[in-house]
Structures are given as C-alpha cells and as structure tokens.
Amino acid sequence: MASAFPSPPILRLHRSPQSGNYTMTAAWQTVFAQNQNYAWMFASGKIDLSNMAAGDSIEIRISTRNTLGGAFAVHDLFDYDDAQPVNKQKITIGTVIDTFGVIVEMRQTAVAVALIQCYCEFFDAIR
What we know:
52% strand; 0% helix; single chain; mainly beta
C-alpha cells in the first residue's frame, strides 16, 4: 500500500571499513574518522589491547565536532598501562550521537619491547 507521505531515510547500522589492525606509533594515529553534514551516530567501537605488556602505555582519544566545519574538541581520553587483565583486554567505546564528526585516535606513549598492534572494530549508523 502506498503512503501519501514520503518516509525519510532511516539510519542503518554497519561495520566501518576502517576496522582492522593498526600498528601503534608515538604520534596520534587516526583509526576512525567520519564526517557528515546531517545527523548520524557512532554506534560503538572495540579495541583489543591483548598485545600490551608490562611497560607499554596506550592513549585513546575520541574527539567530536559540534558545528559544520568547526574544530574538533576532545570528548573522552583514556590511558591504558602495562599488560591488561584477561577480563579487560578488549575495551568498548560507547555510542556517540553527533551531527558533524567523530574521530578516534590512538598512540603508544611507552614501549616495553616494540610498538604493538591493536585490532579495532567500529560501527556507525548513517542513512
């Protein structure tokens, strides 16, 4: 049955193609970035820190932009040190509803043996 009113597009959850393995660096490295000029949602992210050892430090920064073309501001900043407990090796970044952009960045600020590799998986909902 046809409707007299058009239906607006809905948000569709999908796995970001930016998901994958990232080798850490000392400088901030972007592991997820999404910008739109309409409402959308960063649904979640998972980062595997199981490769961390005693003496390693990783920082994760989530930044958002509140106005079209505006500057990004830090939304959350997390610091993880040393080998992570077995039940906390995979961290989750929660939902961020944002209109104009979200960036997730990581860096390794201390190295025990070598720069580590982290598997990252991201989901967003975009129409």
